[in-house]
Fold this sequence. Notes:
six-stranded mixed beta sheet, 16 helices, Nucleotidyltransferase, domain 5, alpha+beta, 34% helix, 2 domains, 20% strand
Amino acid sequence: MPGLLCLDLGTSSAKAALIDTGGHLLATASSAYPTRSTSDGGAEQDPADWVRAARAAIAPVLPASDGLAGLCLTGQMQDLVLEGPAGAAHPAVLYSDRRAGAEAEEIRARLARDGEDWEELTANHQDAGCCAAMFLRLARTDPAAIARAISITFGPAGHLAVVLGAGSWCDPTTAAATGLLEAGTRDWSGAVARAAGIDLALLPRLTTDAGQVVGRTGAGAGALLGLPAGVPIVLAPGDAGAATLGVTGLAAGRDHASLGTSGWIAGVRTADGSPAADGASHRLALAGGTTLHISALLAAGSAAAWARRTYLGGTDAAGADRLLEQREQEHGRGPTGLLALPSLGGERFPVRDEALRGAVLGLDASTGPVDLYAGMLEGIALALSHALEDRPAGDPLPVVGGGAASAPWRRILADVTGRPVLAVDGTDATLLGAALAGAEALGLDHRLAPLADQGGEPVEPDPSAAAAYRALRPAHRELYEAAARIGRRSEDGSSPRTAGVI
């Protein structure tokens, strides 16, 4: 069977996989690259490191191939890459860079003077991490780099397409994260580009499908990546879109959850071009007129790990699960009586508040360590559930991430959301999504399928527990407002208190 060489250039490493059209993972490898952080909030990577890491990751998997049907590219999004005549004209400014806050406010003000609202144009909240603001900042701090740029790309996948000779391209999912894409037209915004000082001619062409052939490897691909010439290059969606494609596919109405270090609910919706009603979710364009809604917690697995260290004396996840099983045998399924916020260092959803801190409400003399741990898992599940309030309760909810391995946590998530929860192995979901995008773009006959469609036995919600959690959800949402009020600076100018009621 022909093999699809899939490459995911993530936040810290390049991951390569060879996947055949029968859906078999034949080989995989990875190679790391460094990030340069600065004391003023900067975060940069050298695009040359992306290429070197890609070659190192590809080399071990190529021997498993009898021939390549295509090279499928995905990776981190919302990076600013200035493409020069011979490589990048400046280190890539990453999505996590926070130095362009003043420039973001300046762009917002310029648009407002012209009668435009940035959030309404893009259907997303915009801040220092958007590429438009990063560009305006670089135009002031390194105008020579701007002058050297012949095009702009917005992540490692786009950069790799450039160095392979395919030209400058961007997929809609990545484009929607830049602050430059109009949600209504799904095209680059001339108004935002003018406000940021960006020549529209620098912006990449936009792909129109979930995966699109943007070129073929040339003679230089051997020296760059160890690849033969003539291999079709498929630009898949950016990592958020590729992971969704790999977990559920891109049909409107499907959701999935992640219980990794951070956590999120990702849902595919019919596009309407309007900003998220909560102001805290991201709306990213997908192919076929759909939109990916992502509601992301800063701490999920990391908050659970903190609770194990703090409440359970450093017990590992398996030991904590045994304690939860014992507790469930004694008390049954249902609320602990605690309301917990997992916001240990700021929050992104259901509120955007960098100053927010965690809270636990409802302690009494009978509360024990395992109750506190269970309460934190409930709190994470309740936080995620706020993104599902308008969704049908009976639809299955696939869940990925390290926390998905915990059977007690899956039961809590099922009870809190009122939805059957299906654990899937999302380790290679992004690479699988890239393979699916590539197989479709190349018109291959294949048996690839999203993880959620590959079978498994879901955990069903307990009806009485689900009803009890449903009644608690409004109070949990109000706790965010109460914690924020506690944390705000008082009117007399005294130092703010943290909101940790623990």
